[in-house]
Amino acid sequence: MKREKLWRRVGLWVIIFLLAFGLAVPAGIAGNVTAQPDSVSSGDGEEPSVVRVAVADRASLERLIADGMDVTEYARRTQEGIEVDVVVTPSQLKKLEKQGVRPVETLYTPSVWRARVKEREAALAEKRAVTAAADTVKILRADYFENDTGAFLSVEAKTSSGEVPDVILTARWDKGPGTQPGSGGEATMERFTDAGAYMYHRMLVPVSHRPSSVQVTSSQGGGAEAKVKEWPGKGPKKPSPHYVKDFISHYMTPTEAMERIERLAREYPHLAEIIELPYKTNGYRRKAQAVLGSQDDAKVVITSRAWGHEGGNRLAVEAVHPGKPNHPLTVRVKDHLITVELATDASGSPVSSAAEVAAALNDRAGRWVTAHTYRGNPGSGRVEPQEATPLTDHLEAPDHISRDPFTVKAIRIGKHRDGSRTGVLAYAQEHAREWVTPLVAVETAERLLRNYAHDKETRKLVDNLDIFIIPSVNPDGAHYSFYDYNMQRKNMVNHCGEERSDPELRNQWGVDVNRNYAVGSFFDGFVGASGDCLSQVYAGAGKLSEPESRNVIALAEKHANIKFAMNIHSYGGYFMWSPGAYKPEGRETLKRPDPGEEAFFWAASERILAAIKEHRGTVILPGQTGPVVDVLYSAAGNSADQLWYERGIFAWNFEVGADRWDPEAKRWRSVGFQPPFSEGHEEAMEFSDGLIELFRVARDYGKDRKPPQTRTVPRPGVHKGPVEVRFESSEPVTIYYTLDGSRPTFRSAKLKAAGLREGAETLTIDKTTTIRWFAVDMAGNIENHYDPGGKGKNDRRATYIIRK
């Protein structure tokens, strides 16, 4: 008992010591000094609540603890005394009130605790209901690949009980045909969730042998098995021995990249031309600024009215002591020097506040500068004398980098540049710091033109396509990244008001160009962008508020023949398409492509990724291939979504710069936005190969005149009991169908996706039914040359007779 009283006294003084210095009481201290309630305990069945109470001083707090009250770990000093949280019954609280303790707020009541218990019990009941029977496991993908550092197995699987966090999936694989499951290895799969929603389970592991099959089992009893496929499949055929490439030797600024494509167009006028995009950018320019004062409430931010390079950088400002008492605040301008003579009092001390100095500068030097207090501060602090401080725009690029608004240019390549050929758009460097991406664009333009005369495959592309390449969408931000702040992501437009326009924030101004587009935007409630002008994903003042984003859309709108697009970004090694954004409530995504469109994205992607692999073995992981929202995150207002949903353009996103596997450390290592040029060069070479393959996809699309062929599985006829019917096709198709015997049209039901990364749904036929359908491939060819708007009867049919 003596020891308990001793520890109580020690703990009490610890609390009082901490409160004396305005510190919070750490968890556990108050608990150590709290005695069990005795004389104030209620024996009539009353239930306690957690109540915040206020006591007058330390002595009152000491009495509270000495009386055996259950004081929690919360205690804070206020202007009126000390607030603490206590666990009390209603009668205990009344007794405390009579002692002068003031209740502040009831924090937790018995009903809240009971609600928590019910919530837990409901969760457990839901889990028991879900886990009462074995779950269903579906293997979405099982891919084997080799790169320059080793061999790997990637598996994605989904359980019907995915919403239960503690359901575990385990993968086991063999060593090849004829070997036992598990002989190759076993691994627990990672549960992948996004925005609180279960997506699927996944794993990526190095393997010593190529597996032929993989089994996935669930801790709930379900299981599945699938064949392991080669990823990304067979690459394109080797180019001719005369094919030339490797035309880049260093990172290029936008000025260099634009000059490069202009030279190419002059050299090959019969195959290329330059298109000047309609919206000039703000330019690599800023107003010059300086700050008077050192304390926040005494700072004045001065900004030139002229751009820095147009005279703002010649200005300077000083604050001087007039050297006499009762001097009025005065501002003089002479030979580009702005002199602020501070007001003084009767003793001769400076008394001008920051707010007063800012007002005087605006009034008397407003022709040259504007002034405001620091970050919204009232500016009540006194400004001290300060030597002449030059105003500067803080821009370090050499003079040959123009400070004028920039005309963004695209090179258009093709023998027939009249809109009669399938168009392809490739555009790079929406994000300024991604230095590798213009190299991909320039290298590709060089290859197309310099191989045309002697390589027949290149000639097929240039003769049959209309290719548009923009090497830098965001030239202002990119110049800033090269010369001023290498991590610049955005453009250089400052949409912040006075409160956040001091030069210390200059590296945070700008708009994220790839969050400024009009579909799936921040302004429509989609996730992945911000309305904060200092955010790295700032969406801008409104949809398409920036010339950079308007240029991309203007090019696509003017050239309606553009059917394919590639947005070149870095880094991370992703390959993605729409949907690229979702709303937070229920993770509502933009409309997903139908199964045929999705299959086309996948088939074309595998061709492109196989071409990338050919250069040095780089493999874009299957788990990093797919819709943006499935494999990365929500990116509200991105350009690919606008191209796809508004223009029907098959639009992809490269994220060049795949992680490199470190076999010694047994981990993946990232390469960054600006790797050593030796690495950047290799990334440009391999992704240029991929871009060339996209052109081949577009060429095949443009010459496709062959109708698709489809069939149902299992075959029509007599079946005992319900049957799940799926469609097989010769190529990616969209299928329209009816089940009531009527003639299918474009208004009929369209086959939907079965689920995330699952392909097309199956149709459950539980009574005798004739399925009528037609298929349309991505080039618009219709099976059997069927006319959905006509009266012909050459649609496809399959009758299923169900015997009960």
Q: Could you walk me through the main structural features you see in this protein, from its secondary elements to its overall organization?
A:
With 804 residues, the chain is an alpha+beta fold. It folds into five domains: 107 residues, 2-Layer Sandwich (Alpha-Beta Plaits); 94 residues, Immunoglobulin-like; 260 residues, Zn peptidases (Aminopeptidase), CATH 3.40.630; 104 residues; 94 residues, Sandwich (Immunoglobulin-like), CATH 2.60.40. The chain is 24% helix and 29% strand. The protein contains 15 helices and 40 strands. The strands form ten sheets. Strands 14-22-24-23-25-30-26-29 form an eight-stranded mixed β-sheet, sandwiched between helices. A hairpin with a 4-residue loop joins β11 and β12. α6 runs parallel beside α8, α11 packs parallel to α14 and α12 packs across α15. The longest helix is centred in the last third of the chain and has 27 residues. It starts with a helix and ends with a strand. The N terminus is likely disordered.
